[in-house]
Write a structure and sequence with these properties.
Oligomer: single chain
Order of helices and strands: EEEEEEEEEEEEEEEEEEEEEE
Distance between the termini: 33 Å
Structural class: mainly beta
Radius of gyration: 15 Å
Number of helices: 0
Number of domains: 1
């Protein structure tokens, strides 16, 4: 597991607003591939992440991260990208251009309070059913390509979204919902 800036105090300006760039690399982890512990920019290009938990995530109390994935393949048990957040958290930014993101038991991407753009990507979930739940401790989207989640019961998804030219392989059903958004009480189908 690659832990970015975990050792450092979160209020130390030397460990904020940096760019971490990973190019032509392979990350293999029995736990999480990459965890961000500071609000930095992470750029991953032409790389592969194989994980046992999440591919890329960030500490839900240290928000405002920017993540850019270009031609990157992420595969593992839970969501390939899972970005959490909270009431006072800064908005995250996620940009995916190309590559494949696959989850064995959840959804390919799940984000809260995030501006998200996904284009030219292949998104897959091997989960045979679709479900969504949200509670004070987080949310859980199963079987979708992308889940635009709420960070608490009654709090709708916050953030902008753009999706273009993506393909989906969802084991739940060939006609399964591909992209859903939590509206504060239930799911709204985007695609």
């Amino acid at each position: 597991m690659l832990q970015l800036f975990r050792c450092c105090e979160n209020n130390d300006p030397n460990y904020k607003n940096n760019t971490i760039k990973i190019v032509n690399s392979t990350i293999t982890s029995s736990a999480t591939g990459i965890i961000l512990f500071s609000n930095n920019t992470l750029e991953v290009e032409n790389s592969t992440i194989t994980h046992g938990y999440f591919g890329i995530t960030q500490n839900g109390n240290i928000t405002g991260s920017t993540i850019k994935l270009t031609s990157t393949n992420i595969t593992g048990k839970y969501s390939g990208v899972y970005l959490s957040n909270n009431l006072t958290g800064a908005v995250n930014t996620l940009t995916v251009d190309g590559g494949t993101i696959t989850s064995a038991v959840e959804s390919a991407i799940e984000v809260k309070k995030t501006n998200i753009t996904v284009k030219n990507a292949n998104l897959a979930s091997s989960a045979t059913t679709q479900s969504y739940s949200v509670n004070p401790g987080g949310s859980n989207g199963v079987g979708y390509g992308i889940v635009l989640a709420g960070y608490a019961v009654g709090t709708a998804y916050e953030g902008t979204y753009t999706f273009d030219n993506n393909t989906f392989a969802l084991a739940a059903d060939p006609g399964a919902n591909k992209i859903v958004k939590y509206d504060g009480t239930g799911l709204e189908v985007i695609l």
